[in-house]
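hiii so my PI (J.) wants the whole complex modelled not just the main chain, which honestly fair. so below is everything: two entries, each one labled with what it is. i double checked the lines twice but i was tired so who knows lol
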Amino acid sequence: MSTAAAATLDRAGSGFGVYNMKLGMWVFLLSEVMFFTGLIGAYIILRFANPDQFAQPGVVLNVPLTALNTFILICSSVTMVKAFAEIEQGNQKGLRMYLLATVILGMIFLGIQAVEYTVLTHEGFVPMSSSYDALGRDGTPPVEGGPLYGATFYTMTGFHGTHVTIGVLCMMFTTFQAFRGRYTAESHGGVEIMGLYWHFVDLVWIILFTIVYLI
Amino acid sequence: MSTIAVPHEAHAAGAHEHHEAIPFIRRYIFSTDHKIIGIQFLFMSLFFLLVGGLLAMAMRWQLAWPSNPDMPLPGGSVLPETMVTDGIMLPEFYNALVTMHGTIMVFFAIMPLLVGVWANYLIPLQIGAPDMAFPRLNMASFWLAVPAGLLMLASFFVVGGAANAGWTGYATLSTSEVYSGVKLGQQLWCVSLVILGFSSLIGAVNYITTLINMRAPGLTWFRLPLSTWALFVTSVLILLAVPILAGGLIMLFFDITIDTTFFRPEGGGQPLLWQHLFWFFGHPEVYILILPAMGFVSDILANGARKPIFGYHAMVWAIVGIGFIGWVVWGHHMFMSGMNPMLGGFFMVTTLIIAVPSAIKTFNWLGTVWGGNIRFHAPMLYALGFVSLFVIGGLSGIFLAAGPVDIPLHDTYFVVAHIHYVLVGGSLFGIFAAITFWYPKMFGRMMSEMLGKIHFALTFIFFNLTFFPMHMLGSGGMMRRLYDPTQYPYLQPQQDTNVFITINALLLFGTQLIFAFNFLWNLWKGKRATENPWEANSLEWSAPSPPPHGNWGGVVPIVNRGPYEYSAPEAEADYWPQTDVAAPVRAAPVSH
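here's the output for the full assembly
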């Protein structure tokens, strides 16, 4: 990754005592925070201005299914932490097992999100200008809504899903490297920065789940 | 937490030894060397500066002789009928020119000229690092900017032409083909800017990491040159502002492409939301476009005056202060947009407060020059030009910041005059200063002092003759982005001023050929530069000109003092490089 990283530690004391890749990831995550802040901010403003366009929680969106999905994503953060803890002890086998678990949990999350999208679009919940006519849950009558509900929903959850997808792909690479024995108790920066990104994506989802599905 | 060892690839330190082994493509095209990437950005952005300038000349031609068959647009015959018919520019094309001039100049010329070029080139050299923290990401940053620029240029030639909703892309003009007549061009505009944003973003991650982690031993934060400080704060602004624009652009793209209604009122969306998102990015962007120039000018003024920079710490905190306050002033672009007037009052006050750190910097520049034994070399002249023109731009900015005064002046040529005083008189003069100052380090050759001085004088004159009268046009009520001022009876008395401005704008453009010649000719024919031709202190002048791959040949420079020890009483020479342990004796006269 970083060819000049070697120079960093030679200059100990001049920086924050954090190696380049880790510092770079933190800095990058700051900008990611701003990206989601922009999307969430736009959502809040549009929703306050058009409360009638947004259905009550649980009427259109399938909250129990997504709650399960949230739980799965949180579990994947736990396995990520475990993977890091294992390699800190130099345990290759544990690292591989927990990384693989994280990849699988991430893929399950994406799979459930894909199912959710498919069902919702079949119910007429699409991000277009025309007003949708989604089926109500639990036998309730169809819901009238506005275009902003679908547009904000798919934009925010879609960009989060994109981040998870990128995360899963990178995690696969990390896992592959772990199976090749590239990480040791002394050198496992790749696992650590992968974890930083993954926990960030998880954290964003908890915020999104709260404001999109629950409120 | 355990300690984490970073893989030692032993590349950065030892690379200079197999310098010759790097094949041409890896060395000059897909290079990971921060100096080559900086130079690549330099050529790319100078090209876009030329393109943006040509667009401006076409606009000025139309404004001086609007739709006049006796004065056909020069070169208009080669353009397609959808742009120029019988030598007369079509209104739609004029709108595209306005939009693309702004977009190209801000995003593809000035921003990369300030950040892409100098953050890449200067930061490792001024902090004594062999390269950036992430050289390959750095290469990706440049090679993302290139397709972004090509997409932007290509949009001129698609159905409907280039985006024409203004460089600010205000909804609903930008969201609806019905209003602007442009769909594909506006989509390309969004895509291009998102790609460029990503390029800037990974650049910023790189600059920040490098600056925090890779400073040479002894180089504390308050021994950094102000160029580096300014580039650091600028990088933070880019890092936090660009994602907001990206989010807005993506929503705009959805509005255009899949009929969402984020910014379209017919579906409950809010055009004002776009303005808030755009300017929440856009105002920090304004400081992205001026802070680096302030940094370069600070270094060059101290060098030319042979005095320490006046109030170094105040200068640093002023940069940081501008960086902070810059986040809470964006609403001053929206006084007349229908925003709540109470909010306008808040933004007015914060905007006026930002004049304080700006004034601190201005007075410190004056204090730096005051009583100095000034060397009027070309970079120094540009730097002095920067200070004087930036002050004029800053003062007209205070007019516009005051809400009540802004009501009559908004969206007139007064705003055009203001932005060009800060962006051309400010940023571009700072860029000229920086290019002439660091050219010897970049290319190992000197630019012509004589041509530099002539170029400075003519640019200074024609710049003022072009842009100062625009204040009067604007006070007289001439709207910006206006296709044909003669259509309005009350603007007809000002038409002679428009002709006067256009003639001077053409001369200003012509003057830049001197710079282009000076720049290109001396790449091959210039006098060989010594290591330290300006007798400056900062670290880059202790490396060879041009520095080899790895910069100091594997040696890490040790820093003993700040970069502004000019005319120190304990030193015999009037400069004292940061690396020198003992006070220097005066060096032999520079031979060139």
